[in-house]
Design a protein that fits this description.
Elements (H helix, E strand, L loop, with lengths): L1 H18 L1 H20 L6 H26 L7 H19 L2 H24 L5 H20 L9 H8 L1 E3 L2 E2 H19 L1 H11 L1 H6 L4 H27 L10 H11 L11 H20 L4 H26 L1
Helix pairs in contact: 2-13, 3-8, 3-9, 3-11, 3-12, 3-13, 4-5, 4-6, 4-11, 5-6, 5-11, 7-11, 8-9, 9-11, 12-13, 12-14, 13-14
Length: 326
């Protein structure tokens, strides 16, 4: 009897391992990187540095959730960083003029969702490639950010707004870290247990077959872009609250960071494959790598080389893995 149970357990593990090869591989790489940095630098495994890593990855993590949704459909959202920038700037300027934190946050989130909706409509209704649409939106939002602000930061935001990101559960562990962790669990549940999640994967795997099965593919292609815009706006709220000011450069290069994290986590560029667990691993891997390069004194220019190299290697691994399956 126990033999059958062990055999069933092994079978389940084999199925899990086969379906999560990328996550297991990158999880192992994350552990190895973590151990190496612990050996190289005595500063790395300190509570202060661990909270630094959490702070560094927190904004990328929120944006990566929306990017995961979009990439699972076979799309891409290159505008996430610029959407974070313009939404946070609009919210900050509104906050300064009205002194209403609630109104400013509501408008910020609504603007993010609207921008995501525009992206999604252009992709789903007009069949414009997502790369082109979101690249254009990235430029529009970034330019609008500078035009609205005149290139100047909005400072001295209300203390009640700063308290959102400033509240702590324990020394160094902020409340919004926990909120982001809960967001990951919530998105994982949505992708695993809801119609939206099932159709998102189905569209990424074969959009035509999904359409012939009676699914409104245009709607379920649109929704991930709205979610991505909303997540970018949430990131803008958290960043503005964290620093107590909003700079027109907020969100610069976040497109690369989120794309790298999601791809490293095993999300296929062609869609239909990827998990929130993988995205979490990818975000942490990028955060630990960047932090490790910082504390070991590596030039920021080489950090870009490291990030790009890891992204290329992750794509190569995905391609070689898929080729073996065929």
């Amino acid at each position: 009897m126990s033999g059958k149970k062990n055999e069933a357990a092994r079978s389940k593990f084999q199925v899990f391992a086969a379906g999560h090869r990328s996550e297991i591989t990158m999880g192992g790489a994350l552990v190895i990187l973590f151990v190496i940095l612990c050996i190289i630098s005595p500063v790395f495994l300190t509570s202060r540095n661990m909270t630094n890593i959490l702070s560094q990855v927190s904004f990328t993590a929120v944006l990566a959730l929306g990017q995961t949704f979009v990439m699972l459909t076979g799309g891409i959202d290159l505008s996430v960083g610029s959407v974070l920038g313009i939404t946070s700037m609009v919210g900050a300027m509104l906050m300064r003029s009205t002194e209403s934190v609630f109104l400013a946050i509501a408008v910020t989130l609504l603007l993010g969702a609207v921008i995501g909706c525009v992206n999604g409509l252009l992709v789903s209704r007009f069949d414009i490639p997502a790369f082109v649409v979101t690249l254009g939106m990235m430029q529009v939002c970034r330019s609008a950010d500078y035009l609205l602000s005149g290139g100047h930061a909005v400072n001295k935001l209300p203390d009640s707004f700063r308290a959102i990101a400033g509240a702590e559960i324990a020394a160094g562990f902020r409340v919004y870290y926990l909120v982001i962790i809960l967001l990951f669990f919530a998105v994982h549940w949505v992708l695993s247990n809801t119609k939206l999640g099932r159709y998102t994967y189905a569209i990424g795997s074969n959009v035509e077959a999904t359409r012939l099965a009676g699914v409104n593919t245009k709607l379920y292609t649109l929704l991930p872009y709205i979610i991505s815009g909303l997540m970018a706006a949430i990131g803008g709220v958290l960043m503005g609250s964290r620093f107590g000011a909003v700079d027109p450069n907020y969100g610069n290069s976040y497109e690369m960071n989120t794309l790298a994290a999601v791809v490293i986590g095993g999300c296929a560029m062609t869609g239909g494959k990827g998990t929130i667990l993988g995205t979490a691993i990818g975000v942490l891997f990028m955060g630990v790598l960047t932090n490790g390069l910082d504390i070991t004194g590596v030039s920021p220019y080489w950090q870009g080389v490291a990030t790009g190299s890891v992204l290329i290697l992750a794509l190569l691994f995905e391609r070689l893995t898929n080729r073996k399956k065929v």
